[in-house]
Design a protein that fits this description.
Helix content: 55-70%
Strand content: under 5%
CATH architecture of one domain: Orthogonal Bundle
CATH topology of one domain: Regulator of G-protein Signalling 4, domain 2
Largest sheet: none
Number of helices: 10
CATH superfamily of one domain: Regulator of G-protein Signalling 4, domain 2
Length: about 230
């Protein structure tokens, strides 16, 4: 019995000695503390890579939208009409978009940027519906008004529409009845709902996005050497 106690004591001493050796500190699950630091570094690098990818994707989408807008303006413009080209806004202009949602929508570049942002969040149907409603309200011909009303309904309102927006059942039913004799106010309730949804949810996220922050940054001042 005395020998057994001696053996137990020797084993306990050996275990304690092993725990005190450098590099022997292990966390739960058999992982070293240094491994955790490596994982954190990898996670930071991965997040940085994802952010860069998102910004690059937004820039690509934005260029695409601006190019399409410019091309459509050229095709629709009459002979001798001025052609509009959209340039990157100054940081001061971009900062104005944060003052009100309407300021953002009133800017051609701002609208394209916001649309690209919504596309990255897979909810671009909201801005597309809002734009379709704005175009609808400008329509003067009764025949065109009816055909456009049916198209908007088929694209955005009916169940399982390709770009179905998130509105309540009662509003959908009301629209279905109103488009039978289309008026300019057919989609007013739904448009207000979608506008509020964008203003209160997507718009604040856009203002906090990396892409918007980059637009608001002032370019670094470069010194130009004077000719002697």
């Amino acid at each position: 019995q005395q020998r057994r106690q001696q053996r137990r004591g020797a084993m306990q001493s050996a275990v304690l000695l092993a725990l005190q050796l450098p590099g022997a500190h292990m966390e739960r699950g058999g992982r070293r503390r240094g491994d955790n630091d490596d994982d954190k570094d990898k996670e930071k690098k991965e997040k940085g890579r994802v952010k860069r990818t998102i910004i690059k994707d937004w820039k690509t989408r934005l260029s695409y939208f601006l190019q399409n807008s410019s091309n459509s303006a050229k095709m629709k413009g009459k002979k001798g009409a001025k052609q509009h080209t959209y340039f990157r806004p100054s940081p001061e202009e971009a900062q104005l978009w944060s003052e009100a949602f309407d300021e953002l929508l009133a800017s051609k570049y701002g609208l394209a940027a916001f649309r690209a942002f919504l596309k990255s969040e897979y909810c671009e149907e909201n801005i597309e519906f809002w734009l379709a409603c704005e175009d609808f309200k400008k329509t003067k011909s009764p025949q065109k008004l009816t055909s456009k009303a049916k198209k908007i309904y088929n694209d955005f309102i009916e169940k399982e529409a390709p770009k179905e927006i998130n509105i309540d059942f009662q509003t959908k039913n009301m629209i279905a009845q109103n488009i039978q004799e289309a008026t300019h106010s057919c989609f007013s309730a739904a448009q207000k709902r979608v506008y509020s949804l964008m203003e209160n949810n997507s718009y604040p996220r856009f203002l906090e996005s990396e892409f918007y922050e980059e637009l608001c940054k002032k370019p670094p001042i470069t010194r130009v050497a004077q000719a002697t």
